[in-house]
Write a structure and sequence with these properties.
By secondary structure, the chain is an alpha+beta fold. Strands 4, 5, 6, 7 and 8 form a 5-stranded antiparallel sheet that branches. The protein has a 3-stranded antiparallel sheet with strand order 1-3-2, with helices on one face. The radius of gyration is 15 Å and the shape is globular. The model has no long low-confidence stretch (mean pLDDT about 95).
Amino acid sequence: MITDPIADYLTHIRNAVMAGHRVVEIPASNLKKDITKILFDKGYILSYKFEDDDKQGIIKIALKYHPETKAPAIRKIIRVSKPGLRKYVGADEIPRVLNGLGVAILSTSKGVISDKEAHTLNVGGEVLCYVH
């Protein structure tokens, strides 16, 4: 049986948004921490905190909602590259999500970065997920 921790991470966030939760706690890893930082930098989450327990640690994420309409900032979060079928792109093939309104998160030789940063650095890599 193959486990996919990134898909589990994205599913935790997706389920918390659909249920209207304010905070979600997720088991931590370095890759998940990098993805969380990108989500914060791009304005999809309100804040985050890395807590250290005696095991692997916990990521606490405060989800972002519109103050009046209560609409979530994250409308869709989709896993692209899966353990059974990896999706790699070159520097000239970096996908645009919602014509530039969304963000693609890539794992590259320069670390985990957004699609715009990958385009600026002219690097390709594995497309982890789309967020919009």
